[in-house]
Amino acid sequence: MSEFTPFHRGGSGEPLVLIHGFTGTWEIWDPIIAPLEERYEVFIPTLPMHAGGPEIDGEPSVDLMLERAEALLDEAGIERAHIVGNSLGGYVALRLAANGRAKTVNAFAPAGGWAEGDPVVGETMDFFQQLQPMIVAAAENVDDVVATPEGRAIAVQFLTESPEVVSADLTKKIMLGAAGCTEAIALAEMGRTADWGFDLDAIECPTRFVWGTEDKILAWPGAAARYRAGLPDADWVILDGVGHCPMLDVPEKTVELIAEFAQG
To answer: Counting CB atoms within 10 angstroms of each CB, which of 14, 134, 138, 209 has the fewest?
Structure first.
């Protein structure tokens, strides 16, 4: 669990930043990295407090997470880029866009879109906190789990509706990355009390939301309420039969969505 690296960088062209979701690492983007590197200089950091990512000094907070994520762009020498994020990474992508760091932003089922006071926020954080000990226990036998289609399907059941397309190697990386997110329970507690709101009007770049109708973590359309109300002119793409991570379910379509939007 200590072998994760802090980022991936490759390809050439305009800068494109990919940001993973809660308990993930940069490696969850693996199915779409190679085709994107044919068109862009791709930078994929692992978020703070995740396996391989930087630590945070002080009490975890959404603002501190964003501050450190923005520092990762600074350290990489990236002033502005096309930014794509999934789940927690989608929220970070939108916040970076609000700070003027995005040429375009693609938010795949981003966190933070709940209506104010929606009890599903607490329920979602309960889910993560209850799931984490099971993930850690399963990771102790990760090779056995990923050795069968049934095991792999259970391992990624909340991320994808098409577990058969996720390789054993990637399933293993996803499991170990999640188990290696040692601050997962604290991060979920942070999410429970966080103020997810921010000035959506500050996002001036072209903005697209992509949501799967079968998302088991941030269910469509309830988890998108704030964004649908606050960004009525954004582009919305709803993917029938797709789960929480489109890059796993429909990698070719995901590449197409990213590239067409970045080209304008």
So the answer is: 134
Domain locations in the chain as residue ranges: 7-118+196-263
Host H or E run for residue 191: helix 184-193
Q: What is the DSSP track for 50-104?
A: STTSPP-SSS--HHHHHHHHHHHHHHTT-SSEEEEEETHHHHHHHHHHHTT-EEE
Q: Taking residues 105-126, report their average pLDDT.
A: 96
Per-residue confidence (pLDDT) for residue 204, from 0 to 100: 97
pLDDT of residue 49: 93
Q: Which CATH number fits domain 7-118+196-263: 3.40.50.2300, 3.40.630.10, 3.40.50.1820, 3.40.630.30?
A: 3.40.50.1820
- Encode pLDDT of 127-168 as tens digits: 999 999 999 999 999 999 999 999 999 999 999 999 999 999
pLDDT, mean of residues 58-81? 92
Taking a C-beta distance cutoff of 8 angstroms, is the pair 102, 70 a contact?
no
Secondary structure element (H or E) that encloses residue 210, with its range: strand 207-212
Question: What are the backbone dihedrals phi and psi of residue 92, each rounded to the nearest 5 degrees, phi first?
Answer: -60, -40
Contact 146, 168 (CB under 8 A): yes
| Band of residue 1 on the pLDDT scale cut at 50, 70, 90 | very low
Residue 125's region, left for phi above 0, alpha for psi from -120 to 50, else beta, is: alpha
Identify whether the C-beta of residue 208 lies closer than 8 Å to the C-beta of residue 98. Answer: no
The pTM of the whole model exceeds 0.90: yes
